[in-house]
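Running this now, will post back.
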Amino acid sequence: MIKHVFIGFLNGVNEIDGWRWYTRYHSKEVPRFFGPWLRRYETFKAYSPPEEAKQLGTVGGYMTELWYANVDDFIEAKPNSRPYTFPDWFRKVPREAIAAAVTIVPAMPTEDFLGKEPTPEEKHILRWYRAFKYPEGVSLEAGEKWYLEVHSQEVKKQTHLLRYISHRTLENPPIETPWVRTEELWYEDFDAWHSAVIKSPPNYTPPPWRKEEPFIDIASVFIGYKPTVDFLKDNPFIP
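Update: finished.
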């Protein structure tokens, strides 16, 4: 199972205009064009990021995941070459306002650094959902060695961290993407995030290529545990 991930979808677009187009047209065309290949189609409205998080590549908008059984299904579905309906403003906004990051990853995490998952019914869950890539000039081998052996081992020492997982991008993805991983860091709320990430973070070992955070190039959003809309099951309100 694989996931086609869009982070920061419609970030910076007028919220009413963006949501109206998305619910009236795009979300209806997606299952009509390639619904037989889709296993899940879920969109999360991102929370407004604190100012400190914006400096770490965090944006607003939405995060969407489209699930397929495998790469062959994705290729056969041809999601990137369908005749979608676009409004005039869509073609005028900067590309980064449409999506800060797009990639494809396995549905299941390739790494679970804490080896535990909290029970959502017992507490609120704030998910910091991030895609990242290593800076230009840094080899994938060097970046992965630092991330897996050094950085992730220090990140998992954060106070208030409830879950910490990562999904390595497919080795031969069916789309061109510079992003090498997605990862999720879960906290109970923004106070817990602020304490763990801004106020009292662990002592991080900088990589050879960059001495100050962020050590890697990141695009991220804050989302809740459950999707705002499951477009294969729900009938969302259309403004």
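Strands lie at 2-9, 38-45, 62-68, 101-106, 111-112, 126-133, 163-168, 181-187, 217-223, 229-230. More later if anyone needs it.
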